[in-house]
Amino acid sequence: MPTFDSGAYFLTALIPIGVTPIAGQGGSASPTHALRKRLSLLPRGEHSPFARSARNHFARFVVIDDVAYNGREQPNTLLVAAGPALSIDQKYKDMLNPVIAQPQDHLSCPFLFFSSDFDAASGADSERDSYLRDLWTRSEADLKEVFKYCLGFEARVTDAASFAKYIADCQIETTMPFHDYWLDGVPADKLPNLSLQKLGLAGLAILAVVAGLVYFWLLPHFLQGLLGGLIALLAGVAAAGAGIFFYVLDFGKKPFPAAPSSTLPDVLKALYLRRQFTRFAIDRQFDAAGSDEASAQSLYDSFKSFIDASKPDDVAEPTQKAGAIGI
Amino acid sequence: MSVVLDLADIQGNILEAYPKQGYFKGRTVLLTIGGDERRTPAANGRHFVTELLPRVTSALDSKGSGDAAEPPAITVNIAFTFYGLLALGVPTRTLRGLPDEFIDGMAKRARMLGDDFSGPKWQSKWDKVWQPATPETAVHILIVLNQHYTATPADLDAVTESIVALAAQHHVSVVGGHNPPDDPSQPLYQDLTALFDAQGRPTPKEHFGFSDGISDPVFEGQYAADKEQAASIGQGAVDGNGVWRALAAGEFLLGYPDEAQEIPGSAMPLSFSRNGTFLAYRKLHENVASWRKFIDDQAEKFATVRGIADVSVARETLVAKMAGRWSDGVPLVKAKDFAAWQAFNEQYPEGSAARERELVDFTYRDDPDGGACPMTSHTRRVNTRDALDPWVAAGQPKQAAGSVLNNRRRILRRGLPYGSSGPDTTDADEHGIVMLVVCSSLARQFEFVQQQWIHYGVDAHAGNDTCPIVGNHSQGADTPDDYARDRNGPKAKFVVPSDPASGKPPYIAEGLPQFVETRGGDYFFVPSLTALRMIGMGTVDPT
Asked: Strands, DSSP E only, in A120-253?
């Protein structure tokens, strides 16, 4: 289930945008125009509406006007080459005739793509809904300014719960999430373990059981013999193959475990500590170089006050503000 | 069949640096093309180019072969800005085939290049000649003159005067002012000179005291086929097994396959671009006094932290860690501490062929954490060799990628220092380097190195630290400038890693001042002799 992986929920939603012109400055305006303007004015960094959530790692909006047109569909050139001899399908002939226009795919309306990844204990809907409700509670005004251009938003969304429902209705499956907090790769003992040997033995067992069942139970007498044996073997192989295939497919859906200390508060605390420690290291490098008692004591004392002040074990504070970018 | 270059069609100073051919002094002349009711700028400019063409030095001439029995006393080379090509009437279709960064010019790229360290009015601190101008009055033409050691300054003056007189006949005039705008003295030309030692011999030194210009990319066609492989050791591309080869010619000349194994698109017609290249002219002022003061101050602290008894040893070590090479050019990878440096110099004495090779023949494979040569040192940043090979630590030479992430980021350095810096010099004195960066894509090569490797610390695992020597150090600087203050953060710093086995902590030098300041420059197109002829005749035909 790629919507949830390594301790993060990857929300993807496609929300239809209205097509009726809206009242804008100096006359009516296209909703996508107004929406794009609003998005380009969205506050950034610490002032971003998403920075107010203590779970949100990344968020992105994209306006999708329409699907791209890839040009005319071309027929299979081999069939065309053999055309005169084969009397090829009329469809191919039409494809080659530039006078006959081909149909094009279009969206019925533009869409607002919204994706966000946030800390979650599981891929359950309740995790998604609690994130969305929290987002609404903290940033209702900013969100309204963005989503008011979307179809049905103003009629349907009145509070946090209805906002969560509205986004959930537009959710699509995330098929390729990206989460990079396993810095040095996932340790082998944390990975879901799949023994190829066991898988092979299980496959063989299925093969034997199915082949046996088919041969001795299903097949009528007159088919038994070499032909019957072959049919039974084929059925066994097919059953074992299908079993292994679906097992592996199901196995692939198991989420990665969460990386240690990879929630947003942990990451912010780590950034804060790194800065503070750099400051400490610069200020105290002369004590660290000394080999006498006094400088050792001084280094010890200053490290203690560094620990007391920065509280490495307290994830909540002091810490870096969410959304803070820079040096 | 390897690449055979048409030396007579390629301008000099590209394949081989003039200073390595005995040209230790030089001069740059900047020109702008004018017009009047009688003749358009295009006509004037074309006449000038056509009449100058026979005097332009090719790669063949500068070797003292071909028609010339001896190398020319004064070499003459020419290049154009985008507005220069526009003024010369080069067709629109050709112009729009030129790269974006060249059309922009260097001033527009200042933010990205880190040239805006002095605040929002950064350009007002550039030399007068590089102050903002209209397309009509901007610098259009760069003439680079280099003086052979057998020639005299009078020879250089004579050639300068004759070219300036030729230009004047065609309403092409000199744009002077090679000092900051408030300086009462505004030279017409930028004079260049190598630094000479007490005995009057030219040295490869620049004003901070480093030997410069040691690394110089070797590419196909520069050397005869039988000499190419040997020349490329340490200077070309290296694979995961330590085998060197020459880089593709297309990295430095237009119209040839490059390291992506394709001929990159260039301005049409091909004859306009082929055998030409691009050049970034960068006048880099060196704050020599600030440098000396900072290093003296830091050397004592460094000696304390590292427990080095002799401060002069600490000083040499600290500047070597910043540069990636000892002041005489010996790479840190070959000599990681002072004693090893002395031993190296004993084993490979000055002037020996073995030394020349040892200075360049190395990789970072055995120093992945920068214990010998810090990842943030200048030379390791700008020429990463195999340091970015993702498999370098995996110990699987067959898989290793060698210098593949570096091969498309190489530049030729063809400049010379200018000015002087005696013991009592101040930052305000005129001294530095006029860096002439040559490559076939300024964006992909020069600008990438400047932005990603000099000014970001990511590939060097160094956070926001910029290059300790040439980087932008404006962060957190004690400055009254609002702009710099707005970007204030921790002061610029440089970390000298230590060998964990030594038990010593790393040393962190904090508060690096701005050592190198850009004082102006621009991007130029260096055409082939064929393209110069076409520009002069007005026969550039892109159809």
From this structure: 171-172
Q: How far apart are CA B18 and CA B75, in angstroms?
A: 9
Task: Flag whether pLDDT at A82 surpasses 80.
Answer: no
| Residue B139: Cβ-neighbour burial (10 angstroms; 0-12, 13-18, 19+) | buried
Alpha carbons A299 and B170: distance in angstroms, whole number: 73
Determine the distance in angstroms separating the CA of A287 from the nearest CA of chain B, rounded to an integer.
8
Question: What number is the ipTM of this complex?
Answer: 0.85
Q: Which residues of B34-54 are buried (b: 16+ CB within 10 A; e: fewer)?
A: bbeeeeebbbbbbbbbbebbe
**Would you say residue A232 has pLDDT above 60?**
yes
Cα–Cα distance list, A260 to A180, A263, A313, B22 (Å): 12, 8, 14, 62
pLDDT of residue B186: 96
> In Å, what is the CA distance from B177 to each residue of B110, B269, B272, B295, B373?
20, 36, 32, 32, 40
Range of weakest confidence among A96-105, B18-27, B283-292, B316-325: A96-105
pLDDT digits (tens, 9 = 90+) for A12-71: 999 999 999 988 777 889 999 999 999 999 998 889 999 999 999 999 999 999 999 999
Q: Is B537 on the interface with A (CB under 8 A)?
A: no
Angle formed by the axes of helices A264-289 and A293-310, nearest 10°:
160
Helices (H) and strands (E) in chain B, counts: 17, 16
d(CA A143, CA A160): 11
Please write the tens of the pLDDT for every residue from B20-29. 999 999 999 9
Quote the tokens at residue A61: 């909006």
Please give the C-alpha separations between residue A295 and each of A291, B31, B299, in angstroms, as whole numbers. 7, 63, 20
Predicted model pTM: 0.90
- CA dihedral sign of residues B319, B322, B325, B329: negative
A153-162, B197-206, B392-401: segment of lowest average pLDDT: B392-401
Record: contact B504-A281, CB cut-off 8 A: no
Q: Number of helices (H) and strands (E), helices first, in chain A?
A: 11, 7
Residues B193, B198, B201: CA angle, nearest 5 degrees? 55
Q: CA neighbours within 13 Å on the CB side: how many for B308? A: 21
Interatomic CA distance for residues B325 and B310, integer angstroms: 20
For residue A155, give how far its alpha carbon lies from the nearest alpha carbon of chain B (Å): 44
The answer to whether B523 touches B138, Cβ cutoff 8 Å, is no
Which of B304, B456, B473, B496 to probe the A interface (max A CBs under 10 A)? B304
> What are the chain B neighbours of A275 within 8 Å (beta carbons)?
490
**Helix, strand or coil, per DSSP, at residue A246:** helix
